TrEMBL record:
InterPro entries referenced in this protein's UniProt entry, alphabetically: AB_hydrolase_1, AB_hydrolase_fold, AB_hydrolase_sf, Peptidase_S33
An MF annotation (GO) of this entry: peptidase activity
Domain of life: Eukaryota
Pfam family, one: Abhydrolase_1
Protein name, as recorded: AB hydrolase-1 domain-containing protein
GO biological process: one example: proteolysis
Organism: Cladophialophora chaetospira
UniProt family annotation: Belongs to the peptidase S33 family.
Membrane-crossing residue ranges in chain numbering: none
């Protein structure tokens, strides 16, 4: 494993970890975390790090997240350009792209622009229509009996008008139990990819993502244009990006397969780790790499 500060063409610097080294004989997998302004490479490293004996796994804090530069714009177009620059930095023409939650939105948009660069696509607990997704997240945060949320704060969070970083941290904090499945042996308050880290919460990134990006994100009618092999992963009990959203994606992408994890919430890689790793490994082994 090596750590890097990669400077991009516009002067922004991203924090990058390359697991598995620079060995050119290994295929490259680039993994995108979710929750802009909140999550980090820790999520993707925990999910895909086990693959480093067979793959080079590139994980990083996206622009505006973690300890990467807080240099806007935080648009999908800019985040896609960042992926392209990291691909070139890693020295490959084609790679596997994996995105979870919000990282799945960016992955879908990347696939529609740069499909020729992809060996395969992995989408975990995501959706294809931003407006419906935002309303679903707001609805469940206000109606679920599993949590007690501040309606005004949740409204600010899901419409991208948060007051400040503390407002963001509090909004996510009161939603913790929604990300885990309702299972007696799984702690709903355990740390996950959307657990706020002290001092590393960036409301400006979340505000941009949900006030500007999500209202115009709708790739439903374009899913059929994605021809690359795709694995769509979802937890049966995901309340934020429900099963139906992943089902819609899998039905829309012609060369895709849907993997449903029956005891998982928003992150099967955490909730059912062994099953997730076995299913992902089987998919990757089936690729002609």
């Amino acid at each position: 494993m090596t750590e890097h500060r990669v400077e991009l063409s516009d002067g922004a610097t991203l924090y990058v970890k390359l697991l598995g080294g620079f060995s050119p004989e290994k295929p490259l997998l680039i993994a995108l975390h979710g929750a802009p302004g909140l999550a980090s490479h820790r999520e993707t490293e925990a999910t895909y790090g086990y693959l480093q004996s067979r793959f080079r796994v590139l994980v990083y804090d996206a622009r505006g997240s973690g300890i990467s530069d807080l240099k806007p714009p935080y648009t999908h177009e800019r985040w896609i350009a960042d992926i392209e620059e990291l691909r070139a930095w890693a020295g490959v023409e084609r790679f596997i792209l994996a995105g979870g939650s919000y990282g799945g939105f960016v992955s879908l948009d990347y696939a529609l622009v740069h499909q020729d660069r992809l060996l395969a696509l992995i989408l975990r607990d995501t959706w294809a229509w931003g407006t419906r997704g935002m309303m679903q997240a707001l609805k469940v945060s206000l109606t679920s009996k599993r949590i007690r949320a501040d309606p005004e704060r949740q409204y600010r969070m899901w419409t991208g008008i948060l007051l400040d970083d503390q407002d963001f941290a509090q909004g996510v904090g009161e939603m913790q139990a929604l990300f885990a499945p309702d299972a007696p042996d799984i702690d709903p308050n355990a740390e996950h990819e959307n657990t706020p880290r002290k001092g590393i919460v960036h409301a400006a990134t979340q505000n941009w993502a949900f006030s500007q990006n999500m209202p115009k994100f709708d790739v439903r009618s374009r899913l059929k244009a994605i021809r690359v092999r795709t694995l769509v992963v979802v937890g049966r009990h995901d309340l934020i990006t429900p099963f139906e959203c992943s089902q819609e994606i899998a039905q829309g992408i012609p060369n895709s397969e849907l993997a449903v994890f029956e005891r998982s919430g928003h992150n099967p890689a955490k909730d059912e780790t062994k099953l997730f790793q076995a299913r992902l490994s089987a998919f990757l082994s089936s690729l002609a790499l």
